[in-house]
């Protein structure tokens, strides 16, 4: 019995190590409506979803809505070309919604008094692989920072205000 448990544990460890070595990744620079670089997003596939590390600067201080959007197109000045929130499961908007939230709903981003923010989260319900929940869609997807906080309940977008920084998520 000990040998079976040991073999199972070793198999799980090796599977995890193999996934870590082959996990898909993406890195991209965020820009504001004037085309200035305001930060970097790094994404990495994990067994639980997509690890997202974001560092931004030169943004207005305060809470900002922060989402993954359905289209990898970011035409300035309003970035509305990025479409709505990424929502492959057809859920309602917001973390407080009893019917569930969009896969692209992220928690508000806190920008400090110096205009900087740094966050690392695992976005569950999405992948960097193939299929409907993959962020590498044929039309792409986008990471969007809004000017106002997301209220976490109002459908379809949480009243997060204008889009102030974006990046297209690509391989």
Structural class: mainly beta
* DSSP strand count: 9
Order of helices and strands: HEEEEEEEEE
Would you identify the CATH H-level superfamily?
Superoxide dismutase, copper/zinc binding domain
Strand order of the largest sheet: 5-8-9-1-2-3-7
Report the radius of gyration as a whole number of Å.
18 Å
User: Biggest β-sheet, characterized?
Assistant: 7 strands, antiparallel
Sheet-strand content, in percent, reads 25-35%
Number of helices: 1
Report the average pLDDT across residues: 83
Helix % is 10-25%
| Shape category | globular
* CATH architecture title: Sandwich
Q: Please, could you describe this protein's structure?
A:
This protein has 171 residues and is mainly beta. The chain has a single domain (24-169), classed as Immunoglobulin-like (Sandwich), CATH 2.60.40.200. 12% of the residues lie in helices and 33% in strands. The protein contains one helix and nine strands. The strands form two sheets. A seven-stranded antiparallel beta sheet has the order 5-8-9-1-2-3-7, with no helix packed on it.
Structure described in brief:
The chain is built from one helix and nine strands. It is mainly beta.
Key attributes of the depicted protein:
mainly beta; Immunoglobulin-like; two-stranded antiparallel ribbon; globular; disordered N terminus
Helix and strand layout, with pairings?
Elements: H1 2-22, E1 25-32, E2 37-46, E3 49-56, E4 62-64, E5 66-69, E6 109-111, E7 117-123, E8 141-146, E9 163-169
Antiparallel strand pairs: 1-2, 1-9, 2-3, 3-7, 4-6, 5-8, 8-9
């Amino acid at each position: 019995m000990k040998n079976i448990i040991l073999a199972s544990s070793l198999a799980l460890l090796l599977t995890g190590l193999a996934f870590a070595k082959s996990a898909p990744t993406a890195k991209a620079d965020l820009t504001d409506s004037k085309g200035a670089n305001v930060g970097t997003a790094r994404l990495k596939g994990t067994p639980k979803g997509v690890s997202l590390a974001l560092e931004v600067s030169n943004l207005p201080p305060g809470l900002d809505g922060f989402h993954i959007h359905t289209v990898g197109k970011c035409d300035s000045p309003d970035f509305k070309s990025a479409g709505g929130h990424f929502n492959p499961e057809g859920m309602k908007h917001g973390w407080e919604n009893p019917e569930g939230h969009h896969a692209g709903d992220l928690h508000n981003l806190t920008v400090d008094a110096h205009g900087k923010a740094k966050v690392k989260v695992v976005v569950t319900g999405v992948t960097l692989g193939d299929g409907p929940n993959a962020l590498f869609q044929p039309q792409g997807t986008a990471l969007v920072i809004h000017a106002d906080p997301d209220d976490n309940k109002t459908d379809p977008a949480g009243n997060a205000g204008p889009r102030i920084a974006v990046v297209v998520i690509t391989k």
